[in-house]
Design brief:
485 residues, mainly alpha, 4 strands, 4% strand
Length: 485
C-alpha cells in the first residue's frame, strides 16, 4: 500500500510541471524518459531495482528474480500499515459483505495490475507514469501527479496519528502519567527526532535492510491481535458482530483500496522477473494478491469479531494499555510506521522536485531546497495530524480518492484508450471492442467509488459530529465512547 518513486527525470529546470510534460511529449511521443534506476517502495521497506531498457524487460538490465522471489517482493509492497485497518473496514461493511468485498477487491486489483502490464507492453512503456502520459495525455498525467503526491501525504498524516495513538499508551505504561501520555507531544517529538531526520536522507538504500523486519513486524502485530482478541473482554457496545451487511460499505471500499494499492510497483516487479512474460507475471500477481487476501481476511476477522461495532480504525486502540503483549505489538508497530514514514515523504518530495522547477534547485542550492522541502512537508503533515483525530476518516479519504485513482480509474482508462487519440474513436464503430469491456468496467467502478465515497465523506464531515462507537480501553475502564471530528 505504499508508494514508489514516480520515475520522473531529474533536473526539470524550467517551466515547472507543464514543461516537464512538454519535454516528455517532444518528437510526437507523449511519454517521459524512464530513469535508469528506480526505487521500489513497499510501504514498509524497499529494494533497489532497475527499470528495463524495454517494456519487455530485455537488455542488459533484464531481471533475475524467480516467481517466488518476485511474489515475495510484491506481497511486501501490499502488506503494510493498511492491514491493521481491515478490522475497521469489516465493521463499516458488516462481516459477511466485508469478506465478500475483500475478495472482490482482490480480484479487481489482480485484474487491474494485469491490465496495466498488458497495456504497457502494447504501448512499449516500462513504467506507470510513461504509460499514463502516453495514452491519456496531459490531463491524465496531471491526475497521476496529483494522486502520486497526495497518496503519500495522506499516508504520512495517518502514520503520525498512529504513532501518537500508539506511543502515548507505551510511554504511559513505562513511565507513568507524564506529558508523553498525551498524543500531541508524542506526535511533535517523534516527528522532530525520528521521522523528520530519517526523511532528510537523499537516498534511502541505508534503510533497505529493514524491509523484511518491517513486514515481519506487521505480521507479528496481526498474530498478536488475533491471539489476544480471543481472550479479551467483549465491550458492551459490541453489537451484533455477525451482521452480514453494514451501511458504510462504500467507505469500507476506500479502506480496502488503501490496503491493496500496489500499482506503483507493477512494472518494476515485472522487470525484476527472469525471462519475464505476461503469463509468468500473472502467476506472480495471483500468488501475491491471494496471499495478501488471506492475510487480510484472517486479521480482519480476528480483529473485528471481539469488538464488533466498537472496533477502532487502529484496532490496537481497542486493547487495554495494561495488556503487555499488545504493548509489545504497539511498540513494534510504531517502529514499522516510523520506518514507513520517510518512504512516503521521499515520494511526495520527489514528485514536487521533479514536477516543479522552483522546488528542485541546482548545485549547492539543491541540498538546501531538499532540506527545506522535507521540513516543510513534515511540519505541515504534523500540524494536520495534530488537528485531526479521526484516523478512519483519513483511511477512507485516501482510499476512495487517491488509491482508487491509482489502482482502478487510471489503469482502466489506459486500457480503454490504448491505441486511440480520443474517446470518440474508441466508440467509432458504435460499440466498444469486447476486449476492452473489462477495462471500461474497471474505470466505471473506480469513478463510482470516487464520486460516491467523496460524497458520503463530505456529507458526514459537513453534518453533525458523529458519536464513534470505537471502544478505547484505558486502565480500569472497559466501556468508553469517544467523540470524533
Amino acid at each position: 500500500m505504499g508508494l514508489a518513486r514516480l520515475s520522473l527525470d531529474d533536473g526539470v529546470d524550467d517551466g515547472g510541471i507543464g514543461a516537464a510534460y512538454d519535454d516528455a511529449s517532444s518528437d510526437g511521443n507523449r511519454s517521459r524518459s524512464s530513469s535508469n534506476a528506480a526505487l521500489i517502495d513497499d510501504g514498509q521497506g524497499f529494494l533497489e531495482g532497475n527499470t528495463p531498457q524495454s517494456a519487455a524487460g530485455g537488455g542488459e538490465n533484464a531481471g533475475s528474480s524467480t516467481v517466488p522471489e518476485a511474489s515475495f517482493n510484491f506481497i511486501n509492497s501490499i502488506v503494510g500499515a493498511g492491514l491493521i485497518g481491515i478490522p475497521f473496514a469489516l465493521k463499516e461493511a458488516g462481516l459477511g459483505l466485508g469478506i465478500v468485498l475483500l475478495i472482490v477487491m482482490g480480484y479487481i486489483t489482480d485484474y487491474s495490475i494485469s491490465l496495466l502490464v498488458r497495456t504497457g507492453l502494447e504501448n512499449g512503456k516500462s513504467n506507470y507514469g510513461d504509460l499514463v502520459s502516453h495514452v491519456l495525455g496531459r490531463k491524465g498525467y496531471f491526475v497521476l501527479i496529483f494522486a502520486q503526491f497526495f497518496f503519500p501525504i495522506c499516508g504520512m498524516i495517518a502514520y503520525t496519528m498512529i504513532v501518537g495513538q500508539t506511543y502515548t499508551i507505551v510511554f504511559d505504561r513505562l513511565l507513568g502519567h507524564t506529558f508523553l501520555s498525551e498524543p500531541t507531544p508524542v506526535k511533535i517529538i517523534m516527528t522532530l527526532t525520528v521521522m523528520l531526520p530519517l526523511s532528510l536522507n537523499k537516498r534511502l538504500e541505508s534503510l533497505a535492510k529493514w524491509s523484511l523486519v518491517a513486514m515481519a513486524g506487521v505480521v507479528v502485530v496481526g498474530i498478536v491481535v488475533i491471539v489476544r482478541g480471543v481472550s479479551v473482554d467483549k465491550p458492551w457496545n459490541r453489537g451484533n458482530a455477525g451482521n452480514f451487511a453494514g451501511t458504510r460499505f462504500i467507505q469500507s471500499i476506500g479502506v480496502m483500496a488503501f490496503a491493496y494499492v500496489c500499482h506503483h510497483n507493477t512494472f518494476l516487479i515485472y522487470a525484476s522477473l527472469k525471462d519475464a512474460s505476461v503469463e509468468k507475471f500473472a502467476k506472480v500477481t495471483h500468488i501475491s494478491i491471494g496471499t495478501a487476501l488471506i492475510m487480510m481476511v484472517v486479521i480482519g476477522i480476528g480483529g473485528y469479531l471481539p469488538f464488533g461495532d466498537a472496533t477502532c480504525a487502529n484496532v490496537l486502540e481497542n486493547f487495554s494499555e495494561e495488556d503487555d503483549a499488545i504493548n509489545v505489538a504497539r511498540f513494534f508497530y510504531g517502529i514499522t510506521i516510523m520506518l514507513t514514514y520517510p518512504i512516503e515523504c521521499f515520494v511526495a518530495r520527489e514528485v514536487l522536485e521533479d514536477s516543479f522547477s522552483m522546488f528542485a534547485g541546482h548545485g549547492k542550492t539543491r541540498e538546501l531546497h531538499h532540506n527545506l522541502l522535507t521540513i516543510g512537508i513534515s511540519l505541515t503533515v504534523m500540524i494536520i495530524a495534530i488537528i485531526l483525530n479521526d484516523l478512519g476518516l483519513v483511511f477512507e479519504l485516501n482510499g476512495v480518492f487517491n488509491a482508487t485513482l491509482l489502482a482502478f480509474v487510471l489503469p482502466g482508462l489506459c486500457g480503454v484508450m490504448s491505441g486511440y487519440d480520443s474517446i470518440s474513436q474508441v466508440f467509432a464503430g458504435g460499440s466498444l471492442e469486447r476486449s476492452r469491456w473489462g477495462a471500461l468496467g474497471l474505470s466505471i467502478f473506480g469513478i463510482a467509488v470516487v464520486v460516491l465515497g467523496l460524497g458520503l465523506i463530505i456529507a458526514e464531515v459537513a453534518g453533525k459530529p458523529k458519536e464513534s462507537q470505537c471502544q478505547l480501553a484505558p486502565p480500569n475502564a472497559t466501556n468508553v465512547t469517544r467523540y470524533e471530528l
